C-alpha cells in the first residue's frame, strides 16, 4: 500500500512538472521587414500585434518582441540578430525576411546564406525557429521566382524548422487588400495574414 502511494506521488509530481514546462512563459522574437513592422498602419493593426492579442485570448503565456524594421533585408537581419538574441533570450525566433532581397533582384544564394546563418545562430541559442516564406511577382521571371520561393522550403527541410510557405496567401491576388503603394497590405489584410501564420505558430509555441 505504501509503495503504491509513493508511485502515485511520483506520477503526480511528474505530471505537474510536465504541465509546468508546457505552460512556462515564453519569449517570441519576430525579425522581419515592413510586412511585420506595421508599415502604413495604425499601431496595433499588424499581424504581430494581432498575434499577441490572440495569444492572450488563448491563454498562452508568451511575450512578443517585434524587432521588425521596414526595408530590412536578410543581411540586415543577420547583422542585428546576435544582439537581439543576447538581449531577449527568446524561446522562439520567427524570421520573416527575404522580400526586400527579392524585390531588389539580389542573388537567391546570398539570401539563403544569410537566413541559414540566422537559423543556425538561433538554434545554437536553443531557440526554436519558424520561417515565413514569400513569393516574388511573376515579372521577375520564372527561374528567379521559383528559386526564391523554393529557398524557404529548402531551408525548412535542412534545419527542420516549421515553415509558413506564403504569408500573403489569400491577399496577394486581391488589390483591394493593399495600401495605395500596392506593395504593403492594408489593415484589413492582416487578420488574413495571421490566419495563415497561426496554425504553424500555435503548434510550435505550445511545444515543450
Compact overview of the structure:
The chain is an alpha/beta fold.
Describe this structure in words.
Strand 4 (128-132), helix 6 (142-159) and strand 5 form a beta-alpha-beta unit. The protein has a five-stranded parallel beta sheet with strand order 2-1-3-4-5, with helices on both faces. It contains seven helices and five strands; from the N terminus they run H-E-H-E-H-E-H-H-E-H-E-H. Mean pLDDT is 91; it is low at 4-22. Helix 2 (47-57) packs across helix 7, helix 3 runs parallel beside helix 5 (108-124) and helix 5 runs parallel beside helix 6. The chain has 208 residues and is an alpha/beta fold.
The amount of helix comes to 40-55%
Number of helices: 7
The radius of gyration is 19 Å
Low-confidence sequence ranges: 4-22
Largest sheet, described in full?
5 strands, parallel
Structural class: alpha/beta
Strand order of the largest sheet: 2-1-3-4-5
Order of helices and strands: HEHEHEHHEHEH
Shape: globular
**Total E-strand runs:** 5
Mean pLDDT: 91
Distance between the termini: 34 Å
List keywords for this structure.
5 strands; alpha/beta; 5-stranded parallel sheet; 208 residues; 7 helices; globular; single chain
In terms of topology, how is this protein built?
Elements: H1 2-23, E1 26-32, H2 47-57, E2 62-66, H3 74-88, E3 92-96, H4 99-103, H5 108-124, E4 128-132, H6 142-159, E5 163-164, H7 190-205
Parallel strand pairs: 1-2, 1-3, 3-4, 4-5
Helix pairs in contact: 2-7, 3-5, 5-6
